[in-house]
Structures
1.
Amino acid sequence: MFSLFKKKPDPLEPIRAELQEHFSTLGEQLGESLERIDEALRKTATQVRRQGVAQDMVRESQEQKLDAVYALLAERQDSGQQELLAFAEAFARYIAHQDGNDESLRQAENKFSVFLESQGIEIIWDLHETFDDARHQACDTRDDPAFPDATVLDVVRPGFLIYGQPNPPALVVVNKRTSHLSILHGEDS
C-alpha cells in the first residue's frame, strides 16, 4: 500500500538527540565525579582512622604518664605520712614521760594535736581507758587490783586514727584480773 500522506519530519527530534547526548555526557561526568568523591571519602576515612589510632596512642601514653605521676605523689605522701607518724609517736612518748607542769610543752602538744587533726590523724594514747579491740592491740596482760578488768595499764606504742580508722592500733598492756577463788579451787580463768 502506498500512503498518500508523507510522514513529516519531527521538528523536536534534533533537540531530543542533543538533549540525550547532553544527558549522556552529564551522566558520564557525574559518574566520574562520584567516583572521585568516593575515592576522596575513602582517603579521608583512612586518614581519620590513622589519626584516631595516633590519638589513642597519645592518650594512652599520657594516661601512663599521669598514672606514674599519681603513683609518685602517693608514694611521697605515704612516705611523708610515715615520717610524720614516727615523729608523732616519739613526741607522744616524750610527753608521756615529762612533768605535766611544763606549760610550753603543753602548748607545743596542743599545737601539734591541732596540726595532726588537720591532717586527719589522731594519736591513740588511751592509758587507763577500757580496752577496745578496734583501737588497741594487747601485747601483754597484768593483774592490777587497783584497776578494773580490761583496762589499759600501759601504752607500749601509741596508735593512730587516720581519718577515723586505726592505723596501726595502739600496742597496750591490759589488766586481766584473776579470781583468787578459781586459782585456789584449781579452775582455769
2.
Amino acid sequence: MYRLLTEFQNLFSGKLYRHRSSTSGDFVALHLYEDLVALSKSTKLASRVDSKEWGINTGNTRQGINARRGDGTFGELVSGETVITDPGYLVSRGKVATVEIGAEVKILHKSMIKQIDRVMNDLRNQVDEFRRGGDTPICVGIVGINHAQYTVGYEGDRSYRTGDKQGGRHPYQEAVEAEQRLLNKVAPAFDVFLILRYRATNEDPYPFEWVDYTATTRDYGAALIRMSREYDRRF
C-alpha cells in the first residue's frame, strides 16, 4: 500500500480517532511526497529531494511570505537553515522559501453536512494561500469521507453514537451528498483532488476498511503519476 494510504488508515485502525486533532492532516500529507519520490516518475523531483535543498515546510508560514502553509507544503528550502531528515523518510524538512506542491487534507468523519460549508471554504481559501507570493504550485486536495453505518464521537470523557439525539445522522446517510458538493464546488480549484472513501465506527476494537480498496489505490496511483508529469513540466 502507498504510504499516504497506510498512514490515513492508521488514524482509525485499532485506535480511537479524535476528529478535532489538528495534526492528523499534517502527518498524512507529508507522506504524499514520500510516495512521489518512491514512484520515481519525476527525475527532477527525485534529484532535488536527494540534494536536501528541497523539502517539506516545518513552520506555519513560508519564509518572507504572509501565507498559511497548508498541511503539506513542498518547495525550495531556505539556504543555511537547519534541515531535518528523519529515519525512514526520504524527504527532508525545514523552512521553505517557495511552494512547488501544496497539499491540504480534510477528514469528514461525522456531522458532514453540518460542517461542509466551513470545510469547502477552508479548502478554497487554502488554494489562494498556496499561490500567495507569486508561486505557481501544484495544488492537491485530499478529503476522507466516512461511509460507516454509524460512528462514535467523543467530547472529553463523553461519547455518543451517530443517530441518537445529539449524534445527528449516520455517516452513510451524508457521505454521497458531501462528496458531490465537494466535487462540484471545490475540486475545480485544485490541480488534483482526491476523495478517500472509508468506513470506521470509532468504537472498540476500532475497525477500518476502504469502501473500494482497489479503486482507491488506482485513483491515488494515477494522481501521483499526473503530479510527477506536471512537476517536470511546471518546474
3.
Amino acid sequence: MTFLELFILAVGVSLDAFAVAECKGLAIRTPYLRHYLSVGLWFAIFQVLIPLAGYYVGRLFSDYIAAFGHAIAFIMLCAIGFNMFRESRITYKTGGTSLAFRYMLPMALGISIDGLATGIAIAFLNARIVLAVCLIGIVTFIFSVLGVRTGCVAGTKYKVAAQIAGGLILILLGLKILLAHLGFLG
C-alpha cells in the first residue's frame, strides 16, 4: 500500500473516533485541555494497539492463505465499512463529562474493535505496519480532538455523516485493492 492509501485508510478508520468524540464533546460542553488530551489519547492508543494485534494475527495465517489475501482484505474493509454505516444509527453512552476509566475504556474498545480486521487486512497486503499504525494513531488523535471541539460547539450534527463517510472510504479502498489485484487498475 502506498503512503496515500495508508493515509486514506487512517482517515476512514478514524472517523468512527471522531463521531464518538463528538458525542463526548456534546456532553462536556466546555472542554479544557485535559478533555481533549484524554479523549484523543484513549482513542488513538487503542486505534494503534488493536490493528497492531490484528496485524500479528494476520501474519500468522498469511502464508496459508496468501493467494486469497487481497480478497480477504477487500471483504474485511467492506465489512468494517458496512459496520460503520450500521453504527451511524447507534447512540453511544459517553458517561457524560467523566473521563473515568470505566467510561473511556468501553468507548475506546468500541471504536477500535474494527481495527483488528484492519490490522489483518494490512498483514495480508504486506503493508508497512509501523507507518500504518503511526498514521492511524496520529489521525485518530487529531480527529478525536476535533470531534470533542465540534461536539461542544455544534452538537452531534456531523456524527452520522462522519461514520457514513468513513464507511464509504473503507469500502472504496477495499474495492480498489481488489480491482488492482484482479488487473482492472494499474
4.
Amino acid sequence: MTDVDQPADRTDALAPPGTTAPVEVVRLAPADVDDALLAGLGALVRQLSRSAPEPTRAEVEAMTASSATQVLVARTADGALLGTLTLVVFRIPTGVRAWVEDVVVDEAARGRGVAQALVVDALERARRAGARTVDLTSRPSREAANRLYRRVGFELRETNVYRFTHEAGPAGA
C-alpha cells in the first residue's frame, strides 16, 4: 500500500462512536486488489447506485495504478471495509484541481465519522498535491452528506452543472 507520489499512504482517524478500533484510511495500490476487496467495493457501489455496474478487477487495478486517481478506503484495524472515496487530481492551465467522487459508507457504519475521515484525508492529499480547489457534487436529498461537506469547509457554489451522455445521441447534433 505504498505510493511514491504521496508522503503518506494512510491516515488513522479517531475511533467512530460505538467502535473499539480506529478507522484507517488507505490509498489503494494495484497490489491491494484481491477478491475480498472487489467484493467489498462491489457491495459499496450497489449502495451508492442502482444503475452503476460493480467495478471489475481490471477497472480497479487501472484506477489504483493511475497517477491522477486515488481510491481511498476506510476500514477497521481488522480489515473490515467501511467506505470508499475517489480523489482525482489533475493539472489544467489555471492550476492543479481536484474532484471528490463516489463517496459511500456502508449502511451499517453510517453516522460514525467514516465519511468525515475519508473526506478529511482526501482534502489533505489534494492540498499536498498542490490543488487550489477541491470540488464535489451531491444531491440535495443526501442531507447528511451535505451537512458533512459544509462542516469540513466546502461551500455551495452557484453554478450550472452540465452532463453529456454518449448514449443520448451524437455530439454536435
